[in-house]
Design brief:
Elements (H helix, E strand, L loop, with lengths): L2 E5 L6 H9 L3 E6 L9 H10 L2 E4 L6 H10 L9 E3 L6 H11 L6 H8 L1 H11 L6 E4 L2 H11 L3 E5 L9 E3 L2 H16 L3 H4 L6 E5 L4 E10 L3 E11 L7 E6 L5 H18 L3 E11 L2 E8 L7 H9 L3 H9 L14 E7 L5 E2 L18 E4 L6 E2 L10 E7 L2 H19 L13 H11 L4
Parallel strand pairs: 1-2, 1-4, 2-3
Antiparallel strand pairs: 5-8, 6-7, 6-8, 9-10, 9-12, 10-11, 11-14, 12-13, 14-18, 15-17, 16-18
The structure holds adenosine-5'-triphosphate and magnesium ion (MG).
Adenosine-5'-triphosphate (ATP) binds next to β6, β8, β12 and β13.
């Protein structure tokens, strides 16, 4: 029996605690109300129920406080085998705590390099890994100079940003001015647990144009293995917004292998030696280019879609890795395709009061799974980042393009039923089987 310490937990991350308990391990969960906004109450309660003990702290960033808390409960170096976090905001204290306790953990330097988007790109540049033009800035005049050098359009985002906070694509100097003007207001209304991550530094980056993918890369201390590559749905009107995923990626095998090798190379260059890492990559006309490396497993709903597509749980692999197991030998073979799309309001909206309370049930027969929190007369916030969607729909199929297309059709019908615009998903070029079918149809073939 091993002893795992989890620093906070995400909704789906509860599956890793459940697995550790099924395997007979001891679990200590460290929690703070600062992160309540991320994990719904039911999942938080489930995590606490499953864990052998939950220790609460006002803040989880001060590792000395965490060490003292564990010591108070009789746990010191030698009593803990591994420390991990499934939450971006807590990966650094988890890595540091592991070091201090002499337990297994993601190497702190690697996690810190990944969490700093400027440092990450410096390391890639030094290692000769293809990346994007960038500069780290603290104020508007510097940002204007950087954008002139890089060339508009550019992306500007906090160096340690998460969840799409204060992130803009800007076409010109006026756009950069608006970014800084709006940032002040966005920072003021932000959750304190998120605001604490950000400082005055932004990264100005070359805009990568193409289709977005993500790869879960597993590392066991020696090997870096791309486990699964996924196609990501971006906002049509604001490509920064993330609207879902399709597993598998639909890329031809050779290209998917190239994408996986690139993501693994990024993790190796950063020194992310232990864990599962969520690497976001744009497929541009010049090749694959890193958008961001998250030094933790995928958040959101993707791990469930991966489980449905591969019959393997990323959370089980995660726990095994932290307890010394080797990475799987290669990408997880997929058995079927899964596609999910978030439901979010395009504008601040009130749900029509005359909508049936059980309106979502009409759509269930067309879905594998899904949910909606939109209730008649309820208010919905316009989607601005990861925390704003009010629902999710998921479709399974034998082919990824068909799964994504059916998901899009259901989403369109839901929009009609609700009677207000949902955040629109950008069209993706078809790949794989559907691309071949449509090419055949266009050339008059069958
Ligand atoms: N250089 C870039 N070129 C093109 N698009 C970009 C670039 N940087 C960011 N984006 C877009 O903005 C989104 C958010 O950027 P990024 O992933 O770095 O921020 P984040 O806030 O850490 O996101 P999250 O924590 O939700 O993964 C990306 O998913 C991508 O769609
Ligand atoms: Mg991201």
């Amino acid at each position: 029996m091993a002893h795992l310490v989890f620093v906070e937990i995400t909704a789906l991350g509860v599956q890793s605690i459940a697995y550790a308990k099924r395997q007979g391990h001891e679990v200590t969960l460290l929690r703070s109300p600062l992160y309540d906004f991320i994990t719904p109450p039911a999942e938080r309660a489930e995590a606490e129920r499953l864990a052998d003990r939950t220790l609460h702290a006002p803040d989880l960033q001060d590792v000395e406080v965490l060490r003292a808390l564990l010591a108070e409960h009789g746990m010191g170096p030698g009593d803990v085998d591994a420390v991990l976090s499934t939450l971006s905001l807590c990966v650094l204290p988890a890595a540091r705590l592991a070091e201090r306790l002499g337990a297994r953990g993601t190497p702190y330097e690697g996690a810190a390099a990944a969490r700093d988007k400027g440092r990450c790109r410096e390391i890639l540049r030094a290692a000769g890994v293809p990346s994007l033009g960038f500069a780290v800035v603290s104020a508007l005049p510097e940002a204007l100079r950087a954008a002139d050098t890089i060339g508009y359009p550019v992306v500007i985002k906090p160096v340690s940003g998460v969840g799409k906070a204060v992130t803009s694509i800007v076409a010109d100097a006026a756009g950069l001015r608006a970014h800084f003007a709006d940032a002040a207001e966005e920072l003021r209304s932000m959750e304190p647990g998120l605001a604490a991550e950000l400082d005055e530094r932004y990264i100005v980056e070359e805009l990568a144009v193409g289709e977005l993918y993500s790869v879960e890369v597993a590392a066991d201390g020696e090997r870096f293995t791309p486990l699964v590559a996924v196609g990501r749905k971006m906002g049509r009107d604001n490509p920064v917004l993330e609207l879902g995923c399709t597993v598998p990626s639909g890329l031809p095998a050779a290209e998917e292998a190239e994408l996986g090798a690139y993501a693994a190379q990024v993790c190796r260059a950063l020194g992310l030696g232990l864990g599962i890492f969520h690497v976001e990559v744009m497929r541009t006309a010049r090749g694959f280019r890193l958008i961001e490396t998250n030094p933790r497993i995928s958040g959101g709903s993707l791990p469930d879609s991966v489980r449905l597509a591969t019959d393997r749980s990323l959370f089980e692999i995660l726990v095994d890795l932290f307890l010394g197991a080797p990475t799987p030998s290669g990408p997880l073979p997929w058995r079927r395709a899964a596609s999910h799309t978030f439901l979010a309001a395009a504008h601040d909206t009130v749900v029509p009061a005359d909508l049936a309370a059980d309106w979502f049930e009409e759509f269930r027969p067309r879905l594998h799974s899904g949910f909606s929190r939109a209730v008649p007369g309820g208010r919905l916030r316009a989607m601005n980042g990861n925390f704003d969607p009010f629902g999710l729909i998921r479709v399974l199929d034998t082919d990824p393009d068909r799964a994504a297309e059916e998901c899009a059709r259901v989403r369109g019908d839901i929009e009609k039923r609700l009677g207000f615009p949902l955040t629109a998903v950008a069209e993706r070029a078809l790949t794989g089987a559907a691309a071949a079918e449509s090419a055949a149809a266009q050339s008059g073939g069958h």
